[in-house]
Fold this protein.
Amino acid sequence: MPKTIVVKIGTSSLTQPETGQLALSTIATLAETLCNLRRQGHRVILVSSGAVGVGCARLGLTERPKAIALKQAVAAVGQGRLIRIYDDLFTTLQQAIAQVLLTRSDLVQRSRYLNAYNTFQELLGLGVIPIVNENDTVAIDELKFGDNDTLSALVASLVEADWLFLLTDVDRLYSADPRSVPDARPISLVSSIKELTELQIQTGSQGSQWGTGGMVTKISAARIAIAAGVRTVITQGRFPRNIEKIIQGELIGTHFEPQPEPTSARKRWIAYGLVPAGKLYLDEGAIAAVSLAGKSLLAAGIKLVEGEFDTQDAVQLCDTNGNEIARGLVNYNSNELQKIRGCHSREISTILGYAGAETVIHRDNLVLT
Ligand SMILES: Nc1ncnc2c1ncn2[C@@H]1O[C@H](COP(=O)(O)OP(=O)(O)O)[C@@H](O)[C@H]1O
Ligand SMILES: N[C@@H](CCC(=O)OP(=O)(O)O)C(=O)O
């Protein structure tokens, strides 16, 4: 059965840690592996980091730049080189590739989200391997994926992939960062989001010298992907051939089993495509109604409103400690909600002077995160 497979490779696997130079043998083996998968009839997308790392190596910079403008300039240098190397390798293997550079705003607007979906379908239908990266050169802070782990999970969710491989410089997920905790326990299988939460994995503060997100972004990427029904694997980038072995059933790396009933495509867009514009802090009754009983959110259960937002914007729903439990599209703007929070629905028309929706967020527009 042909599968849709998204592979994400991080800077730490694409470059040599000592010099920052490209790890050519890894990249070549990855190209061969992805071509094998294509020959077996699978649909393949590569999400490749490395624009900043390769740009730095090209310009002789020894550290990842911190200043935004410099980082964006360096990414512009590196992305061109990176794609040229991929094109040389894949062309040698008679495989067409495409460069797809995305920014967060491409997924926020529903029409652009659907457009991205159509483009991926067209490319995959043509047998092309799209090579995706964040459009670092133009991305602005407020509208950024920020890391390619998240980007790859969103792409996997968008195309409803069967597999997401997160290739990195450790062989799997551990109970804590194995660099600083040598006796950290290796984790082979995570069978649900609940189990992932219960494992309470320690991720340290950051990743390797050139990586961006560390393990924390891989875990949140896995959450996004498994909610979309995508089987996710964290494994070592130095051995790309393991991808084929894993698809054939070998338990290499850490596997995250997909949720049996994936969240619908529209709800996934609400939860992860949109950028939340505010926060609603709920009381315990509202948390139970929303998260356990699958009910709509009423004004009565809202304790606090944070941020400025409009009707139909996405907001986060949080407990009193600020932990997010859900996201949804609001039927009232932030000014209105400041006035009606804590009130019974039948009081809304008196307080506002006009009749609005009975719910603040209807359950069709509400998704647990
Ligand atoms: N619980 C953990 N299990 C495994 N690795 C961890 C964990 N916590 C932190 N890490 C670190 O995350 C790093 C990988 O993240 P990162 O450098 O961002 O890689 P990439 O460039 O592949 O995205 C590893 O080198 C490891 O030291
Ligand atoms: N878009 C950036 C990479 C961002 C990123 O997530 O990097 P990494 O942690 O190495 O996967 C780049 O191409 O350099």
